[in-house]
UniProtKB/TrEMBL annotation:
GO terms for cellular component: mitochondrial membrane. Keywords: Membrane, Signal, Transmembrane, Transmembrane helix. It is found in: Mitochondrion membrane. This is Thioredoxin-related transmembrane protein 2. Pfam families: Thioredoxin (PF00085). InterPro entries: Thioredoxin-like_sf (IPR036249), Thioredoxin_domain (IPR013766), TMX2 (IPR039101), TMX2_thioredoxin_dom (IPR037463). PANTHER family: THIOREDOXIN-RELATED, THIOREDOXIN-RELATED TRANSMEMBRANE PROTEIN 2. Residues 36-231 form the Thioredoxin domain. Endoplasmic reticulum and mitochondria-associated protein that probably functions as a regulator of cellular redox state and thereby regulates protein post-translational modification, protein folding and mitochondrial activity. Indirectly regulates neuronal proliferation, migration, and organization in the developing brain. One of its GO terms (biological process) is brain development. It comes from the Eukaryota. PROSITE patterns: THIOREDOXIN_2. Monomer. Homodimer; disulfide-linked. Occurs in both reduced and oxidized monomeric form. Oxidative conditions increase homodimerization. Interacts with CANX. Interacts with ATP2A2.
Length: 258
């Protein structure tokens, strides 16, 4: 398994490696790294180098160089967290039942603008994110409970469609706290999102639990309103989007809640 995982990751990243090698900056960096190892480990090139090893061997790394190399390796792994996805033990992707529509970079705007009476809750996710994978079964369960004609659930992979993350201001940095992001759309416009973003552009800590999503997005009230819309038919004029009150409690409970 230790040999198979790196081989799978290598095959998976062959197209990216070809583009990487085509750029002189990365190729020069690789050559310089190889030159450092040759000079540091290959006699007689390393015989005249200074060393702080107790045995006085100039052709081996001393403790300072080992610490620097370990630190640089950790930084490289963090920066390439998405590339390391297949090489680490990640929880499996959720493959259970759900009532979710998946968007790409072209269909998301079209679907949100198609019928402005429909309320959308869209999850912006990335497959390499552990938090997104942990939230996937919760979001799927919510879609099965609350999806109806006037209330739809959607997902879009911002790890794959970078322009979508830019348009909707969802960071996909390896160290980001914005994945997953839930956005409520009414009338084709964003009404609220979780986690919220502060003035410095940082995500405010928020727990993605089923109870928090139901309370903050007021799903019970949205569900009741959407059911009334579907029963009334298509002759109802479009309503102006109204943001749900996270602290308010619906007076009438749905049959599912009872």
């Amino acid at each position: 398994m230790a040999i198979l995982a790196p081989l799978i990751a290598l095959v998976y990243s062959v197209p990216r490696l070809s583009r990487w090698l085509a750029q002189p900056y990365y190729l020069l960096s690789a050559l310089l790294s190889a030159a450092f190892l040759l000079v540091r480990k290959l006699p007689p090139l390393c015989n005249g180098l200074p060393t702080q090893r107790e045995d006085g061997n100039p052709c081996d790394f001393d403790w300072r160089e080992v610490e620097i190399l370990m630190f640089l390796s950790a930084i490289v792994m963090m920066k390439n967290r998405r590339s390391m996805f297949l090489m680490t033990c990640k929880p499996p992707l959720y493959m259970g039942p759900e009532n979710i529509k998946y968007f790409n970079d072209k269909t998301i705007d079209e679907e949100l603008e198609r019928d402005k009476r429909v309320t959308w809750i869209v999850e912006f996710f990335a497959n390499w994110s552990n938090d997104c994978q942990s939230f996937a079964p919760i979001y799927a369960d919510l879609s099965l409970k609350y999806n109806c004609t006037g209330l739809n659930f959607g997902k879009v992979d911002v790890g794959r469609y970078a322009d979508v993350s830019t348009r909707y201001k969802v960071s996909t940095s390896p160290l980001t706290k914005q994945l997953p992001t839930l956005i409520l759309f009414q009338g084709g416009k964003e009404v609220m999102r979780r986690p919220q973003i502060d003035k410095k552009g940082r995500a405010v800590s928020w727990t993605f639990s089923e109870e928090n999503v139901i309370r903050e997005f007021n799903l019970n009230e949205l569900y009741q309103r959407a059911k009334k819309l579907s029963k009334a038919g298509d002759n109802i004029p479009e309503e102006q989007p109204v943001a749900p009150s996270p602290t308010s409690v619906s007076d009438a409970e749905s049959k599912k809640d009872k």
